[in-house]
Write a structure and sequence with these properties.
This protein has a single domain, classed as Metal-dependent hydrolases (TIM Barrel, Alpha-Beta Barrel), CATH 3.20.20.140. The protein is 50% helix and 14% strand. It has 17 helices and 8 strands. Helix 1 packs antiparallel against helix 15, helix 5 packs parallel to helix 7 and helix 16 packs antiparallel against helix 17. It is globular. The structure holds hypoxanthine and zinc ion.
């Protein structure tokens, strides 16, 4: 029965809307790039790297995540990283991706903005022919840094704005409320960029309200803690706000203590537009289908729930209405 549902989920076309490309850096590639670029990393083997991936909160993960990025130096590195992710996504029948990148994670260690984005975009341009996947790119601001630094990043992005669909907000959440970034998000909106933000992963429901009311987000990343506030849930449902939920990430970062207690089924039952995503698959134990498998194994999801999750991923994407309709029609053909 569960196997049937997993087979069904695997067969469905899906979109991935919450994926940090730097978080798809597998230990094997990290090791290879460290050698290629002669970068010292504090690990002697792939096994040692994997063994270090045990976290009790978001910050413990972020410390290792920023350290892992240190091997990414050249345009080719960013290209190889992105191609490796697309290859994995294709294996999971992902047909559309909207990926995040963290420019400040690179510019702050003297890797130019243009180097990072060029390598990523070259891979994304190949994506449709090589993997049958369409792709969009979202640039995130690191919220533990000041808003001035986000403005500087937006300035660096200006020559590339026709190839960036939107801006996001990520990194350490508690103590860094969304409203700190209201001005830079408004500036991004004036450029015609979509706006998304991580909120309610560790931070309180108030941060989700702020993301809605001060950042004017088009999509909410995580949003788990919104469930603590009934009025907020009603608003998110009424606005058909898409939540990019990341079950294995939530488990690894101790946002939930057990997948059996993951709220994604509850979100669907409350009428929220939840989707399934991998966040940082190299660090959290899996890609999109690993996340589907985990929730199917541990929650009482129905076939309709699975179909809804796949449909939501296209409905919540930044594809054009006609493209969304085509993907939704393809979902209806799977049985
Ligand atoms: N939360 C916040 N920032 C991040 C994450 C996350 O899950 N992954 C990469 N940056
Ligand atoms: Zn994330």
């Amino acid at each position: 029965m569960k196997e049937d549902l997993i087979r069904y989920a695997a067969a469905l076309p899906k979109a991935e809307l919450h994926l940090h490309i730097e978080g798809s850096l597998e230990p094997e590639l990290m090791f290879q790039l460290a050698q290629r670029n002669k970068v010292e990393i504090p690990f002697n083997s792939v096994e040692e790297i994997r063994a270090a991936y045990s976290f009790s909160n978001l910050q413990e993960f972020l410390d290792i995540y920023y350290q892992g990025m240190s091997v990414l130096l050249t345009e080719e590195d960013f290209f190889d990283l992105t191609m490796a992710y697309l290859n994995r996504a294709a294996a999971d029948n992902v047909k559309h991706v909207e990926i995040f990148f963290d420019p400040q994670g690179h510019t702050d260690r003297s890797v130019p903005f243009d180097t990072a984005i060029s390598g990523i975009l070259t891979a994304l341009r190949l994506s449709r022919v090589q993997f049958g996947i369409t792709a969009k790119l979202i640039m995130c601001f690191l919220r533990h840094l000041p808003e001035d630094a986000a403005f500087e990043t937006l300035k660096q992005a200006e020559p590339w704005l026709d190839q960036i669909v939107g801006v996001g907000l990520d990194s350490s959440e508690v103590g860094y409320p969304p409203s700190n970034f209201a001005r830079v998000f408004a500036a991004a909106g004036k450029h015609g960029l979509k706006r998304v933000a991580h909120a309610g992963e560790e931070g309180p429901p108030d941060y989700v309200w702020e993301a809605l009311d001060t950042l004017h987000i088009d999509r909410l990343d995580h949003g788990n803690r919104a469930l603590e506030d009934k009025k907020l849930v009603e608003r998110l449902a009424a606005e058909e706000m898409t939540l990019t939920v990341c079950p294995l990430s939530n488990l690894k970062l101790c946002v939930v203590d057990d997948v059996r207690n993951h709220p994604i089924k509850k979100m669907l039952d409350l009428g929220l537009r939840a989707t399934v995503n991998s966040d940082d698959p190299a660090y959290f134990g899996g890609y999109v289908m690993d996340n589907f498998e985990a929730i199917i194994e541990n929650l009482d999801l129905t076939r309709e729930d699975i179909k809804m999750l796949a449909s939501n991923s296209f409905a919540g994407s930044f594809l054009e209405p006609g493209e969304k309709r085509a993907h939704l029609a393809a979902i209806n053909l799977v049985n």
